[in-house]
Amino acid sequence: MKLSYSTLATALLATLSVSSLAADVTIYGKANVSVQSSDEGEGSFTEVKSNASRIGFKGTHELSDDLTVVYKAEFQVDLDGDSAKGDSITDRNQYIGLKGNFGQVLLGNNDTVLKQSQGKVDLFSDLNGDIKSLWKGENRMSDSITYKSKSFNHFQVGVTYVVEDSVDGDDATSFAVTYGDAALKKSQWYAALAFDSEMKGYDVTRATVQGKLAGVTLGAMLQTQEEVSSGKEMDGFLASAKYSIDSWVLKAQLQTANFDGGDDKSGVTLGADYKLAKNTKLYGFYTTFDMDSGADEDYLGAGIEYKF
Fold it and tell me: Is the pLDDT of residue 14 over 90?
């Protein structure tokens, strides 16, 4: 889907104009831009990167005491200007659905429940150290139906079904069971077990846990994945830790990916955030990837993130 800035602005203004007729409409977004030195095996270069900056609107509309419409339309905006003409605004999660005593059902373009199951364990999401650099499973799927149950004793079940969309197409399924609060505000621990079946050609199993211990937030993930067509497998591990000191947050993350045939890959990222205000931070990071069969990669950057 390709949109001009004027088209997006018109849509958002229209949403504002009818907000008095609908319940709980929220316009939100995030601007995240970094300046960094990047070396992808052919020498270093300097670049300005827009790291999944976005704008969107979301809301609910209560139809009755036990039935509510939920919706979201989110777009990625490339603030660095590097996108090809007409591609500077692209789709992110966009859906509509119903929520009630049965849980919620969402139809549209949405992250799979396996992707969502990572919670907040990936401390460098949207940057070069994002777990998608080494692992499969970070999928946002169109033509999807997602169901999530209500929470029972902190447990919740979720399923994503991706329809075939054509006579020759293939369907796919994602399943997850989670425990606790991913933001660690309502619980001290968060855990999840998730599975993908034939999602973008891969079967994936992922286990996630994160919690707070002596002031340090610790996280870990285990993943196995198999390419359906070839049977090639990978086993991976991730560990992350962060610690807050006044306005600073110190972060570290290690990720491995061990493939059949001895093609081992690993990545290490170190970083720090400095909070300027509740919705604004400065940050710095260093990411290095050790690739057995490919060129090693290094990234050193600093940036600013503003949420609204």
Answer: no
Contact in structure between 145 and 161 (CB atoms under 8 Å): yes
pLDDT of residue 2: 45
In whole angstroms, what is the distance from residue 220 CA to residue 263 CA?
22
Arithmetic mean of pLDDT, 182-211: 96
d(CA 237, CA 234): 10
Rounded to the nearest 10°, the torsion over CA 281, 269, 215, 193 is 110
User: With 70 as the cut, is the pLDDT of residue 23 above it?
Assistant: no
Domain residue ranges in the chain: 5-307
Place of tokens 């001009």: 4
Closest among 196, 252, 185 to 225, alpha carbons compared: 196
Strands (E), 101-154: 103-111, 140-148
Q: In this prediction, what percent of the chain has a pLDDT beyond 70?
A: 92
Listed residue (234, 206, 233) closest to 221, CA to CA:
206
Distance CA 162, CA 175 (A): 12
- The secondary structure element, H or E, covering residue 14 is helix 5-17
The pTM assigned to this predicted structure is 0.90
Average pLDDT of the residues in 155-179: 94
Q: Please report where in the chains the tokens 């650099």 appear, as a residue.
A: 133
Q: Tokens 């149950």 — which residue?
A: 149
What is the CA 293 to chain-centroid distance, rounded?
27
pLDDT for 134 beyond 90: yes
Q: Which residues of 13-33 are buried (b: 16+ CB within 10 A; e: fewer)?
A: eebeeeeeeeeebeeebbbbb
3-state SS, residue 138? coil
- Mean pLDDT over residues 46-66, rounded? 96
Is residue 268 a contact partner of residue 291, using CB atoms and an 8 Å limit? no
pLDDT at 208 over 70: yes
CATH T-level fold of 5-307 = Porin (2.40.160)
CA distance 152 to 160: 19
